Each structure stands twice: as C-alpha cells, then as structure tokens.
Amino acid sequence: MKSVLTMATALALGATASMAETVRVYNWSDYIDEALLNKFQEETGIELIYDVFDSNEVLETKLLAGGSGYDVVVPSGTFLQRQITAGAFQKLDAAQLPNSANLWDLIQDRTSIYDPGNAYSINYMWGTTGIGVNTAKVAEVLGDDAPIDSLELIFNPENIEKLSACGVHILDAPSEIFPAALAYIGENPDAHDKETLAKAEPVLTAIAPHVTKFHSSEYINALANGDICVAFGWSGDILQARDRADEAENGVEIAYNAPTEGALMWFDQMAIPVDAPNPTGAHKFINFILDAQNMADASNYVYYANGNKASQPLLEEDVINDPAIYPSAAALEKLYITTPYEQKPQRQVTRMWTKIKSGT
Ligand code: N2P
Description:
- Helices cover 43% and strands 16% of the residues.
- Helix 2 (34-44) links the parallel strand 1 and strand 2.
- It has helices at 7-12, 34-44, 56-65, 77-85, 105-111, 135-142, 152-155, 157-163, 174-184, 194-207, 219-225, 235-248, 279-289, 292-302, 317-320, 329-333, 343-358, and strands at 22-28, 47-53, 72-73, 121-134, 168-170, 213-214, 230-234, 254-257, 263-271, 305-306, 335-336.
- Residues 28-31, 76, 234, 237, 266, 268 line the site of pentane-1,5-diamine.
C-alpha cells in the first residue's frame, strides 16, 4: 500500500514538485484508515510515502542495517527497547508534539518499561495476541464445547490435528509464539533461560505439521473468506476479519478470544530512526496521529485500542465497549508482557523457530 500526493494537489498547495517535502512512514499492514493518509497530505502539503510490514524481525533487520530511508517506524515495545540500546533512534522533541498532551498515563506507564520516560517513542496502538475462530466450522470439527478461548485449541496436538482439516494459521512471530507455548505448559512466558526456552520446542514441533501456514497477515482475509477456521493472531486483525465477513454477507462468523491461560499484551510504538531524512516531517506526522479525532478514526477503523486518552469519547460504542479491544481491569490483570531477548536466547529462539517451521 502506497500513497502519494498528486501533482495537482501539490501545485494547489503552492509547492512545486521539486520543493515538495516528503515523509516516509513504515507501519504494520492493516493498521490505518487510508483516508487519514490523504488527510495528512492535504493538511500539511507533505508528500507521504507509506509502506507496510507484518513482522518485527523484518523491521529490525532494515533498521539495524541503517539507511532505511524511513522517518517514522513502528516497532513493538520489546523490539524497540533493544533498538534504542543499539542506537537506532533519535530522541523525540516534545516541543514539536503539542498533541502529546492527549496521551493516556496508564499506557505511558506501561510503555516506559521499554522506553524509560518515553523519550524515544509514542504509542500508536496496543492489543493482545489470541485466538480467532470461525465459530461454526470449529464447532463442526470439535463440537459445541470446543475450547475456543484456551491455548488448548492450538497447542493440544489432538485439537489442531482435527482443525487442520479446515485450516489453521499461526503468526510467523517467534517472539510471541514461544511465550504462548510456554504459557500453555505452565512456564513463565517471559522466560529467557536456555532450559525453559527449550521446553517450548517440543510443544511447537508437535503442532507444526498441522499448521496450514505460519504467516502474520494473510489470516485476515483467509478467516473472513472461510478458507481457514482458526488463526492465532492479533486482536484487531481478527476483528477486522469479522467485519470483512459481515460486509461480504458470506455467513462466516468470527470470534476473538484472549486465551484464559494468559495473553500477550503488546505496544506498537512510533519512533524516528537516528538517520531519518526528515525528522521535522516525522514529528509532524506523529503529532497528526496524536490528534484525538485522528487517533479515534484510526482505532474505529482497525479495532485496536490506542494510547490516547482524549480519543476515547470519540470512539465508536462497539470499539470502546468491546472488551476484546479495551479489556476490563480484571482482564488486564490476566495479560502478560514480555521483555526483549538478549543475544543468546534470541539466537536460540531463531534457530528453534527455523527448525520448527521447516519440520526437520
Ligand atoms: C496490525 C498488526 C499489528 C499488531 N495488522 C502487531 N504488533
């Protein structure tokens, strides 16, 4: 998905093509209402180049190589933390972000675990990692009491073997799937030690042959079209699948549940690379997103919660009141967070993940 200011609009705004300022943003796929991208261009006269990814690992490789050319990127908190340590970002300039007055202290407190003082980043959205099901198909395969809100659905080989007949997608995100496998066997999902991490490997090896695909964005349409019956994925993406099925009126009903054993709560943070070509433009883009109405429009469109308190009165009822998007205080207690793997556990996890996916 790319969006550029047309020449006609640029001229209307009094800029010439050669003078036009550009901001390059690299964000997750299916994470914004494109109308907002046009609005930013119209309001500021800045040409916006908007590229998307579906993996923290992919973003990290680009960032750490340097010269990505991006002005704003959106890593999750755990990845952001080690990227800050690696010197990948520049500090934000609060004077250029007046709309940060709109931020929500509850989320600010949580993201400061990864970015002390929130010096380098601002929350875009947050959510949970959990289970999306096609309710009718799963009931057909496993019966009406199928454990659709439990990790049993995915990690018990007996269940997933049966579900493979209607199709199962799991995120290609080892930093989220290892913690989930550990939670399933009653271990600390945020374990970094070699022995505990090794316990996740047989859990994942046992289910891998029954996984239709390890992928982190195709499951939205696959669920909506009825091509798969289960996805272990991100909350808002699964709610978007529900919406797409509703719109298509194809009879597919999708439900999302955060697993009762505990679910990962993650935070996607807007940050400016140290070598960003246009840091001033980057601040303008972040400040635009921080506008209460713009942030509400973004959440209303993608069904993810945001870190913007002022946007809350502007959210649709079915967003602010959906506990899958804004969990109750009790549900928040059941969510866990993770911390970034150091080099050694990261290598161990990457090695095991490659092996699990290749089935060797
Ligand atoms: C948007 C996915 C963002 C959640 N499609 C991953 N942090």
